[in-house]
Amino acid sequence: MTGRRIALSVNGSGHDVWVLPSDTLLDVLHDGLGLADVRYGCGEGVCGTCTVLLDGEPVSGCLTLAVQAAGREVTTLRGLAGPGGALHPLQECFLRRGAAQCGFCTPGMVLTALDLVRRRLARGLGRPSREEIRYALIGNLCRCTGYTKIIDAVAEYADLAAAGTSPPAAAP
Amino acid sequence: MTVTDPRLAAPRSGYRVVGTSPAHHDFADKVRGSLLYAADWQLPGMLHGRVVRSPVPSARITGIDVAAARALPGVAAVLTAADVPSNRIVELASGGLGELQVTMPVLAADRVRYAGEPVAVVAAATQQIADEAADLVAVDYEELPGVFDVESARADGAPLVHDVGNTLVTWQIRSGDAAAALAAADVVVEGSYRTQHAEHAYLEPEAGVGWLEGGVVTLRVSTQVVEHAATIAGILRLPHSKVRVIAAYLGGGFGGKEDMTVEPYLALLVWHTRRPVRMIWDRQESLAASTKRHPFLMRYRTGADRDGTITAQQVEILGDAGAYPNLSPRVLFAAAACACGPYRVPNASITSSAVFTNNVPASAFRGFGAMQVTFGYEAQLDLLAERLGLSRTQVRERNFLAKGDLLPTGERVGTCVEVAQTMHRALALLGDPPRPSGPGKLVGRGIGCNRQPYGRTIWFRDRASAWLSLQADGTLLIRCGVTDLGAGQAASLCQIAAEVLGAPLDHISVYIGDSALNPPAGGTFATRQLYMSGNAVLRAARELRDRMSPVAADLLGAPAGELVFAGGRVWAGGPGGPGEAADGGAAPAGTGVSITLAELAAACDRRSVSTAHLATWHAEAGAFDPRTGQGDTFPDYTYGTHAADVEVDAETGQVTVLRYAACHDVGRAINPMRVQGQIQGGAMQGLGYALTEDVAVEDGHVQAALFADYLIPNAHDFPDVLVDIVESGEGMGPLGARGIGEPPIGNVAATIAGAIADAICVRPARLPMTPERILALLDEKGGTR
Question: Which residues of A touch B9 (CB under 8 A)?
Answer without folding.
Answer: none
